[in-house]
Amino acid sequence: MAQPVTTVTTSGPTPVAPPGAPRRGSGRGRSTSWLIRISVLVFTIVAWWLVTELKLIRPLYLPGPGAVWHAFVQANSDHQVAPGVNRIVRGAQNYYLWEHLVASLQRIAVGVGAAIVVGIPLGLMMSTVKWIGIVTEPYLNFLRSLPPLGYIGLLIVWFGIGDTSKIWLLFLAAFPPITMATISGVRGVREDQVNAVLSLGASRRQALTSVTIPATLPEVLNGIRVAVGFAWTTVVAAELNNGIPGIGGLAYLSGTQLQTPLTIACIIVIGVAAVALDGIIKLLETVLVPWRGKA
Amino acid sequence: MSHDQAVEIEGLRHYFNVRGSLVHAIDRIDMTIEAGQFVCLAGPSGCGKTTLLRLLAGFMRPSEGTITVGGERVRRPSAERGVVFQQPMLYPWLNVRKNVELGPKLRGVGAKERRAEAERYLTMVGLSDFGDRRPYELSGGMQQRCQIARVLTNDPDIVLMDEPFGALDALTRERLQNELLDIWRATGKTILFITHSVDEAVFLGSRVLVMSPRPGRVVLDEPALFSEPGEQIAAERIRAMPEYNRLRERVRQAIQETPTAAAATG
Ligand SMILES: Nc1ncnc2c1ncn2[C@@H]1O[C@H](COP(=O)(O)OP(=O)(O)OP(=O)(O)O)[C@@H](O)[C@H]1O
Ligand SMILES: [Mg+2]
Known about the structure:
The structure holds 2 protein chains of 2 kinds.
Chain A: H1 27-53, H2 65-75, E1 78-80, E2 88-90, H3 97-128, H4 130-145, H5 148-159, H6 163-188, H7 191-199, H8 204-238, H9 247-256, H10 260-288
Antiparallel strand pairs in A: 1-2
Helix pairs in contact in A: 2-10, 3-4, 3-6, 3-8, 3-9, 4-6, 5-6, 6-8, 7-8, 8-9, 8-10, 9-10
Chain B: E1 5-18, E2 21-34, E3 38-42, H1 49-57, E4 64-69, E5 72-73, E6 81-84, H2 96-106, H3 111-124, H4 140-153, E7 158-162, H5 170-187, E8 190-194, H6 198-204, E9 207-212, E10 217-223, H7 235-240, H8 242-256
Parallel strand pairs in B: 3-8, 3-9, 6-7, 7-8
Antiparallel strand pairs in B: 1-2, 1-4, 4-5, 9-10
Bound molecules: adenosine-5'-triphosphate and magnesium ion.
C-alpha cells in the first residue's frame, strides 16, 4: 500500500500535504477509523442475523435484519395490507416512512428554531443585565430539570392535541441548553478582550456586538447541538399522543401493534437522522468558528 | 513640543482582594507624565507595573487617589489611551487586517481610508503578507506585532505598552524599537513602555522609572539620556557613552535592591 511520495496526484485519496500546509486531521488516521467503524457495523449486523437465524430469540422480540429491511421498504411504498389481500395501502399509517421523518424534522426545526430565537437573546440579557439574571436563573434551572414527559399532559390541555403542544414541548426542551450555553459563553469571555475593544474606542454596545457575541458563538453552537440532541430524545414523547405523521409516533404505535420490525426500522431511522443532523451542525461549527479550541 | 501635563497621578494606591485578604499592589504613586514623554518603566516581576498600566487605561478604578489625563479624570477605557497588552488580545473571528482596522471601523472611518492606514502599520511591523491570516495562525511574536499595529492604526494620544517586545527576537526587536522611536519623534505621542530589559529602559525612552514590589512604589525616576524626540543619535554611539553606562548601572542597582531581584535582571 506504499504510495510513492514523489508523484503528486490531484485526485488521490490522501494527497501528500507540503510541509507547513494546514491539515484538517490526518487523512490516513481518518480512513483507518472509518474502516474500523464499518467492520464493527458489519460484524454487528452479521451477529444480529445469526442470533435471529438460529432462533435464539423469538422474532416478535427481535426480528432479523431481513424482516426489518422488509418493513422499511414496505413503509416507504404502496403495498398490500397483507400477502394475498388485494387492498393497497400507502406506507405505514397512510404515510410513507420518509414523510413521518420529515414531519418530525419539521417539528424539531420549528421547536429548536424558536428556542434559538428566544434562548440566545435571553441568555445575553441574563448574563449582561445582572437583575434579569438573578430573577430568571432559578426558573431556568427548574425548567431544565423537568422531564418532558412530566408536562406533556399539561401542554395538551393548554394547546390541544395537535402540533402546537408538540412544538411547545420541543421548544421547552431545547431552549434551556441554548440559554445556559449563551450565559456560560458570555461569562467565559476574557475581560481583556472587552477592555481591548473599549480602548479602541468602542461603545458598550459595540463591545457587545463586535466582541462579546462573536466570542460567545462557539459555546452557543455547542448549546444548539445539545438542544437538537434533546429535541430528538423528546420527539418520541411529543408524538406519543396523536403523533401521526411522525417518526416517533410511528415507532411507538407500531410497537403497541406488535409490528416490531417496523419499530426497529423507525429506531434505526431516528438514530441515523440524529447522527446525520449532529454531523451537519458539527460541520457548521468548523465553518463558523474555525478558531474553536485554538484561541 | 508642548509641555502640558498629559497624565497626573495623585496619591495612587491599589489593593486586590484575593479571597478575603488584601494584596497591596501599589502603595503610593504621585507623578506627572508630560505630553510627549516616552516613559520606560522597569521593575521585577510582580511589582505592579501591569497594575499601574491598567489603572491608567481605565480598566479598573484605583482603591485610593486619582488619575487625570488632559485634566479629565480617568473613569473608563478610551480611544485616546491605546493599550498593547502583555498577552496579545486579538480577535480570532477577524483576520489580521480586520483586527488592525477595528478601531477606525468602530469610529465609522471609510473602508478605503482605514485599509490604507492598516496596511501602513502592517508593513511597518512586517506583517503585510499576513493580512488574510487568522491571529491563531501567527507565532506569538507576530501576534504581538499585530497588536502593536492595531493600536498604532487607531492613533491614540497616549500609548500604554506592556512588555511589547518581550516575545521578539533581537533583530526584530531592534527594528521595532527604531520604528517606535520614529513614530514618537514624528507624532510626539506620550508613551508608557513597560520592559524587563534594563538596556531597553535606558536606551529607548526619555525618562526611566523603576518600581519596587510589595507594595509597588517608584524607587527611581530619572531623565534618560535624550529627553527630546528631536535628538537622534546612532545606537552604537549611545551605547559607547559613559553617561549611558552610568545610568544603566543606576537602573540595574535600583532593580537589584528590591526584594525579589533575582527574577528581574535581564
Ligand atoms: N487581578 C488580580 N487579582 C489579584 N492580585 C493581582 C491581580 N493582578 C495583579 N495582582 C497582584 O498584584 C501584584 C502586581 O501585579 P502586576 O501584574 O501589576 O505585576 P507586574 O509588575 O506587571 O509583573 P510582571 O513583570 O510579571 O508582568 C502582584 O503581586 C500580583 O499578584
Ligand atoms: Mg505585567
